[in-house]
Amino acid sequence: MSERIQIGDVSILVSRKAVKNVHLSVHPPNGRVTLVAPNTTRLEVARAYAISKLGWIREQQSKLHNQAREAPREFVERESHYVWGRRYLLSVYYRETKPFISLDHRRINLTVRPGSGPQKRAEVMHEWHKSLMHQVVPSLIHKWEPKLKVTVERYFLQRMKTKWGSCNHRAGHIRLNTQLVTKPKDLLEYVIVHEMVHLIEPSHSDRFLTILEKHYPSWREARVELNELPLAAEAWSR
């Protein structure tokens, strides 16, 4: 059961779980605040804890609000796009052929049929992004399955508005945000490991953090870097 507390203009969603300590989080893109507390914690105790952290909450929200946001993409000539953290310029070609994309050391070359509008160009780019991730994701999953002693039954790639990834621990499935293809590959690996740890521990409990810390000790730095990179307007608009 979740409850909500209000401290001035800060609204905090409070939930109780089988954890030992209180976990306070400020989530991108818009600074949503959650507080996870042990099952026996009284609401007034959770409120007092949140008040003591109010300065930190506002600082984190300010960082998110000031964070750079990428301009909405129009998929036009010489527009900037990112692949695995590296910036490329887009070249657009119109030909009577099946749409395709090629990549060289400086440019992404997008070929579409004459008359293809921004939506069609975006769809072609998204499918290409998925193909790039399909080239990388399986090897990373296979790398971490024996380390974590888990099995990923299936993985899915999709646009996600508010998460970098998710996990269905019962089915053994993980989902990954296709926007990860624009970030450095080590950040994709961090998200994959994070979601695979959820196959062991579904919640963000102390046990989850202990497992993540053991296998991926740089997870905090990766999370900070991921959340400090520019937010894609099309991925986070809401």
Please give a handful of descriptors for the protein shown.
globular, 238 residues
General description of the model:
- With 238 residues, this protein is α/β, with parallel strands linked by helices.
- It is built from 7 helices and 13 strands.
- A 4-stranded mixed β-sheet has the order 1-2-4-3, with helices on one face.
- It is globular, with a radius of gyration of 20 Å.
- The two termini are 25 Å apart.
- The model is unreliable at 233-238 (pLDDT under 50).
Entry summary:
The chain is α/β, with parallel strands linked by helices.
Mean pLDDT: 88
Structural class, from secondary structure content? alpha/beta
Distance between the termini: 25 Å
Given the structure, what is the number of helices? 7
* Beta strand %: 25-35%
Q: Find the count of extended strands (DSSP E, 2+ residues).
A: 13
Stretches where pLDDT falls below 50 for ≥5 residues?
Answer: 233-238
Q: Give the helix proportion (percent range).
A: 25-40%
